[in-house]
Design a protein that fits this description.
Elements lengths: L1 E7 L2 E7 L1 E6 L3 H12 L4 E4 L8 H4 L20 H6 L9 H14 L6 E2 L4 E7 L4 E6 L4 E9 L21 E4 L14 E5 L3 H10 L5 E6 L6 E2 L7 H9 L1 H10 L18 H14 L3 H4 L9 H18 L3 H7 L12 E2 L2 H4 L5 E5 L5 E4 L3 E4 L3 E3 L2 E4 L8 H4 L2 E3 L6 H4 L18 E3 L5 E2 L3 H22 L3 E4 L1 H16 L27 E2 L3 H13 L5 E4 L2
Parallel strand pairs: 3-4, 3-8, 4-5, 6-19, 8-20, 9-18, 10-11, 10-18, 11-14, 12-13, 21-23
Antiparallel strand pairs: 1-2, 6-7, 7-8, 15-16, 16-17, 22-24
Helix pairs in contact: 1-15, 10-11, 15-17
Amino acid sequence: MSIHSTQESEKQIEVATDFDAIVIGAGFGGIRALYELRKMGLSVKVFEAATDVGGTWYWNRYPGARTDTEAWAYCYSFSKELLDEWDWADRMPTWDQVLAYLAHVVDRFDMRKHMEFSTRIKSAIYNEATKKWTLTTEAGKAYTCNYFISAAGLLTVAYEPPFKGLDSFKGKWYLTSRWPKEPVDFKGKRVGIVGSGSTAVQILPIVAQTAAHVSIFQRTPNYVVPGRNFPLDDAQRQSIKANYDAIWETVHKQVFAFPIERPHRTFDQFNSEERERIFEAGWETGGFRYFFETFEDITTNEEANAAAGEFVRKKIRAIVKDPKTAELLCPNYPFAIKRPPVGNFYYEAFNRDNVSLVDVSKDPIREITPKGVRTETEEHEFDIIIFALGFDAVTGALTNMDVRGKGGETVKNKWEAGPRTHLGITMDGFPNMFMLSGPQTPFANIPPVIEAAVTWFGTAIQRARDGGYTSIEATPAAVDTWTNHMQELLDTTLLGKGVDVGSWYLGANIPGKKPSVLFYFGGANNYFKELDESIAHEFKGVAFSNA
């Protein structure tokens, strides 16, 4: 507990503060923030709604859930000892492997004593007189702090099933983002999967192995690239550990913070035969390497983008035996304006006799019935329905919480027309509040972006403490500049067309949510430079004061 003096109505009052900093969330962001703040000597409390650490990976434990980033970069880089001692099992870890890693980090650095689980924060309110934040739990207990860090994550608030009649369904239904800890038995069951994004791409091949029949309801097809996952052996793990310095150097130079070298080539440099060979090599290597190791201008050159998309469509037609199903699975919009899912045998699953594709683009779902799912023309009967509908991503974690800054302004109101931040970490009107994986940070590999953001606000807090300042707040001008910059970066790409196909990284997947630029599309490498330059220029655009 710390004591802070403030002047109010010419009276000196002493205000007791429970913690120097409070962090919401015990996933990658919250754990990294706790490590940094504790290293600075601050008293810190982390509140987590789940029963253990893990964040997104705690809740999204559905069958087939795994990262689409290679393990050796989907981790922390702050400790060489941690890198050396941890052994990943797979190229792209499963959800339980990620949970085991985060639990190891927390236990290795004795962090659990700073964490309170099964505790959901209902509100965070700034007091202008005391310059403190008060966070209140759903149980009604209040805590005060000087610094409030939201590490609630970008995939936190699930898009709930919007269909009438759900309560009437006689079978069982599940939301992938709140998957139960107990195993779900699909053996001999008729299963419906509503949704066809990344989650559905992962879960379909697994469920189809034992279910009597699986029907997947697709509104918009996706460009699914093969994961080419494989288990790591000891020799591979030794090689990774021996090359970590080079790996992290590559990560910090790569546009999505992946351990992938730039191809240093553009589409126009090659003839059609050479292009086909390059695309084929990227496809066979697997994962996002199809995107990043082929041509550098896929998102900026319409001809390159069209060729990348057509290559995937040819693969779909070659893999899926039924021509009608294959065509329904073929996207007809630019490649990567929606996030391409990484799958393992997704298209192959449609060659099974017990898998059906239901196209709801022209025959939409009308209601859930006691027996199953009714579209405009047909009723589909199920024993189990799985809803894989995505998230109110990026902004949802804070707009669905009562967060109030100066003058009682809420984050929800401030972001009504779209998020407004400085560097995706802080904003005007909300002093001493910092966000991890917040809006207007890069659409990229999360852990390296989190580490860069933590370094930025940790340095800012230390500067305030060294200078005797009680308030750190972005200026309105800096927020305007950054928000305008987000639109300018988007306009240099083809990604703005994602609004037309319900892209979640523009917020277009949620009915009633105003589409806006939710991410920094200038590349993680350039974002890291922006943060470094901000620190080097003594946080230009940020006011340090006692006001």
